[in-house]
Amino acid sequence: MKDPAVNVNSEIGRLKTVLLKRPGEEIENITPDTMERLLFDDIPYLKIAQEEHDAFANTLRDNGAEVLYIDDLAVDVFKDNPQVKTEFLQRFFEEAGYGIGTTHDALKDYLTTFSERDLVTKLYAGVRRNEIEFCNDSLHDLAGRDAANPFLLDPLPNAYFTRDPQASIGNGMTINHMTFKARRPESLFTEYIMKYHTRFAGKVDIWRDRNHDTRIEGGDELVLNDHVLAIGVSERTSSKSIEGLAKELFSNPDAKFDTVVAVEIPHNHAMMHLDTVFTMINYDQFTVFPGIMSAEGKMNIYIMTPGDNGTVKLAHRTDLAATLKEVLGLPELDLILTGNGDDIVAPREQWNDGSNTLAIAPGEVVTYNRNYISNQILREHGIRVHEVISSELSRGRGGPRCMSQPIWREDI
Ligand SMILES: NC(=[NH2+])NCCC[C@H](N)C(=O)O
């Protein structure tokens, strides 16, 4: 890729550009009834969540990163290309189940009165049934739907976890088919931004697009170095997607990756992605939640490398530290346990993303201040830790890595 717009060849190279989404009105559309379906365990207080998020963004800026907001990029695209906006809306409606019919027409008429800025805000916030007055006489729109759902278009409260709808890998990206309906529209924004925004159009390799039916999310996709990826086999990412991506990367002459390490983790809400239990924070230092291993310290790991004629070779491993040494060519490494591995502290701090550290340079990370024991341990291991306030943001079950999508990291 000549003149690439994305450059991420590690988890730890100094962060130069990052994509965020400030929590917005969508948070105020979470209700006790919809919370579980919307993948929240509680309802954050938006005002404080925004203050915390602004502090997070400022921490990244103060340390040399340019911050892009995904909604600003979408507004740019729609302002520059009115026909793209129309096409996007049609896709958005289709994916919500309103490709044609009375509801489609009513939504379209309503939303085309919005400015580009208000439209993007609205698409994230959701559209309530009682916002639009129309007589729904379409069986297609009524039958088989959840009449109790107050929303015609559901809110997208997880959008502030910009890590997941896509993943930057080398000079390209995967644009992800996400697992739950509650998040799927998020990556449609990415698709349109990468295709039409002047900063990205034609300057990003798309390793895998969202038009697949197997699931993958960015929280599972870790770039360990310029030729090795680690990908979680998790609640959110299937083995099929990992195989598909490995085949694509191994056969695409523009991709330099020759090793994909598939790491099996428990399938549950507290550990929905690999990055909630495992992150890379220095050349030879990693955070890990001990709960992903058996009592004997074992787990299932598969090293995938290119085989003959476009096939993929698999090698099974059970020891995380040994596998990392093997694929990264390291003589020694330091696995730092969440909450110092304590039976009570480790799961408590993991629950609030104590393992979800965002490296902004080798050995320098951003973490939530509430995980004070894990932070202390990181410091004892020589890591420079920038703590950010975290009472409300953490209620969405994601931390600093989940809330950030690196677009550019310095090569190391
Ligand atoms: N990369 C991550 N770990 N993201 C966390 C996402 C949390 C979000 N509530 C979800 O369930 O999807």
TrEMBL record:
EC numbers on record: 3.5.3.6
InterPro entries: Arg_deiminase (IPR003876)
Entry GO MF terms: arginine deiminase activity
Compartments where found: Cytoplasm
UniProt-listed SUPFAM superfamilies: Pentein
Annotated metabolic or biological route of this protein: Amino-acid degradation; L-arginine degradation via ADI pathway; carbamoyl phosphate from L-arginine: step 1/2
Keywords assigned: Arginine metabolism, Cytoplasm, Hydrolase
Residues at the active site: C402
Recorded catalytic activity of this chain's protein: L-arginine + H2O = L-citrulline + NH4(+)
Top-level taxon: Bacteria
Pfam families hit by this protein: ADI
Main location: cytoplasm
PANTHER family named in the record: ARGININE DEIMINASE
Family membership: Belongs to the arginine deiminase family.
Family matches, as HAMAP family: Arg_deiminase (MF_00242)
Protein name: Arginine deiminase
UniProt source species: Periweissella fabaria
